[in-house]
Amino acid sequence: MEQKHESSKTAGKPIRCRAAVARKAGEPLAIEEIVVAPPKSYEVRIRIICTSLCNSDIAFWKMKEPDGQFPRILGHEAVGVVESIGEDVEGLTVGDTVIPSILADCGECADCKSNKSNQCSKFPFEISPWMHRDGTSRFSDTNGETLYHFAYISSFSEYTVVDITHITKLDSTIPPNRACLLACGVSTGVGAAWKAANVEANSTVAIFGLGIIGLGVAEGARIRGAKRIIGVDVNPEKFEIGKKFGITDFVNSKDCGSKSTSEVIIEMTKGGADYCFETVGIPSLINEAFACCRKGWGKTIVLGVDPPESQYNISSLVMLHSGKSIMGVLFGGLKPKTDIAMLAKSYIKKELQLDGFVTDEMEFEDINKAFNLFLEGKSLRSVIWMNI
């Protein structure tokens, strides 16, 4: 049956707009005029309202060939408005406020139907330069050269095309400069505390790495009523920042003397933390997090993304005798289509605080300033307004 949708004046036509294009690894992004094709079946074209800069954008911006793919439009933390809709799309209309997410949620496969998983088996997670279904791009420059996608979102563009499996409809009352944070980092941290670990009241939490994900974990644990939240970092300034999100104790891993960080935490907690989170992506920190997890019921959650060749070793005897568990999780275990909206409601109710994560706001033309602030360690999240 033919789908009928309200259409905009630009529906079905290519749109010329501005995008910040990464032409070469590590070089400043170029604000260029590009062409964004109309959405195909199961796709929507979105006008981006604002976007924020994530560590993953930095990592792939730095990445040289063969893994780095250029020219590319980066960006994946964003909020926008549906401009036009392709065939076979249900549940959305032009003008809806939406958040794109890096994980697909098709609602049809065994994983998406289960409460035990957030990893779609029909559209598995990968950092692809193409759209999911046909392996092509919706972007080109004015010379006709193909521009690559990033994480199925590419939000450093005034308009982008996203598959419906990556789209969550959002309550438009949440300010866009806060809503965009829910697309990745903050949600990953809060989700890990709520869904993957299921932190309960009066528990003890240790967080290795106090970047945006680690602070998101702290915020999630704070809301859940954890009585002690220990932050581990090499930057002592992170303690003051972390206090806003519930950090009660701080351990500088460079200042532990002859003791390991895990030994210090075991002494502090008289046996280890109930929940430990590794958010940096360093194998040695995963081992330390597991080591200071309380025996009998302790759980270690791995959130950090390390190089593909990285390995970490845990003694099978220790695993058997300790009764502890360890797990890795993407996007904090959240199901995008339901749980992003749940976090948005929590913010509207003034339970979840997002304001403290934003350290800078700027115009699209200043996007390279956001990169510089991040590289200098001077920002948690820079929000970039498209203003179109």
From TrEMBL:
Signal peptide: none annotated. Keywords: Metal-binding, NAD, Oxidoreductase, Zinc. Residues 42-170 form the Alcohol dehydrogenase-like N-terminal domain. Its cofactor is Zn(2+). Residues 213-336 form the Alcohol dehydrogenase-like C-terminal domain. One of its GO terms (molecular function) is oxidoreductase activity. Pfam families: ADH_N, ADH_zinc_N. InterPro entries: ADH-like_C, ADH-like_N, ADH_Zn_CS, GroES-like_sf, NAD(P)-bd_dom_sf. PANTHER family: ALCOHOL DEHYDROGENASE, ALCOHOL DEHYDROGENASE-LIKE 7. Belongs to the zinc-containing alcohol dehydrogenase family. Class-III subfamily. Homodimer. This is Alcohol dehydrogenase. It comes from Cinchona calisaya. The lineage of its organism: Eukaryota, Viridiplantae, Streptophyta, Embryophyta, Tracheophyta.
